[in-house]
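ingest -> validate -> predict -> emit
validate: passed (alphabet ok, no gaps, 501 aa)
predict: started
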Amino acid sequence: MAVQMPFAGLVIMHRLVRICTSSPAHHRHGDILVKLTRCKREIRTFSTGSVKCNENERDSSDPSPLNTKLTSRQALLSSRRRPLSPLERISSLLPQDALTPEVMQLREQNQQEPEEDTNIQKEHVLVTESAEEESGHEAVHEDDDSLTHHASDATHSSESQLNGTLPHQEEMRIPSTLPGESLLGFGELLVAEYRKKCRMEFRKMFQLQRGKRLESTWGFIPHDNIAGQPAGVTLKTGRRFPIFIRRPSLDDYVLYMKRGPAITYPKDACTMIMMMDITEGDCVLESGSGSGAMSLFLSRAVGSRGSVLSVDIREDHYKRAVLNYERWRTSWSLRRGEEWPDNVQFHNADLCMASSLLAGRGFHAVALDLINPYLVLPTVIPHLHSGGVCAVYLANITQVVDLLEGLRCLTLPLLCERIIEVPVRDWLVAQALQKDGQHCIKKAPILDKDQREKNETSEEADEEVTTERNPAFGSIPYIARPHPEQVSHTAFLVKLRKCVQ
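emit:
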């Protein structure tokens, strides 16, 4: 409107100027009118310049702080615009007389909500703009410092993830508080386990060494992060899988150590020790060292005051048994701070021809793990104390028959007391869960009407208890079934006792 002035207005203005300038009395009024025309010209030029400036700003692509503020304000205000619902669209097409009072009330509520939201957003925009103007250059410096700080944290966290640990694990060092408790140290043997839904998915025995790491398909953990932790700690891998770290027991070590021949399983070894009634201070003869499993159990049974003589005919079995025995002793000394008794003597010899090795010695018990044990009985039985037990470990029932036939032919002073097999059946006992992970609820039996009315209060109380996060004792059912992974047959154990003829 300021650009386009009517032609009649210009003519009237020109006449007024001429009349005023003609008389000296009206000279002052003429000056005023000239000033007015100049002001109008300036207004006209300013309006045209502003229009051009806006057009240039629209065409230009360089952002400015003013534009960014306007666009941010517009984005905030436009983001709060809510699309119309189907009810609003239909009601807007219909006349107000045809609408019910409920629909009219809903329309009024919907119209009030956007107005309130826009007012709130406008106030928020004004507050943020004033805060930005007050902060000025200080905010820029603070942002730079925060960026450098976050960048250093990000690099630190990325390095820790590459090492396979989490940031909170680097500072987690729990000191030993109980008397006699020791933290995990380098050189010890450890067991790493990962369980998923009460099922063992990963188990590995390893030696803790400086600079190495525990690797698995679930990620890895550096050994340096394990050292200094208490036994029984749970650490997370780089892939955030929890790995349980603990010290191995003797049966764990026997099952997961490096082996050559088949081992004597812990369940059979313990039964044989009970058969032979071995106590601390006894002297025991073992034929068939194998991988050294039975030697370790006998070494612990006889103690520091006893002794074990282990003989094997094969040199590779002999070397493997010695290595496994010494490895366990080294780990035990680091773990307990005291030496495991060095009470086992390993020999590589044929027991049938090793009468000189047994000369002048007597044994409280004898343990045999041979294919044909009846061949060494004539050499061994004379050195067994009267009433002592000779326990034989045989894998097949046909070997048991051959042993009994050999005893019949040799007429040795031996009495076969027992032939047993040691079955061990693992069971899976766990809480009964639904598919969504919630606990199952025990269902009460169907009662009569009278009994149902009496138990209404108790049933309501039980329902309130079961909905809690920790249900009451006895309110959760359990499932119990044999474990799908069972240890089947291992061996037959024959108990022979020496008698006096």
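The mean pLDDT is 75.
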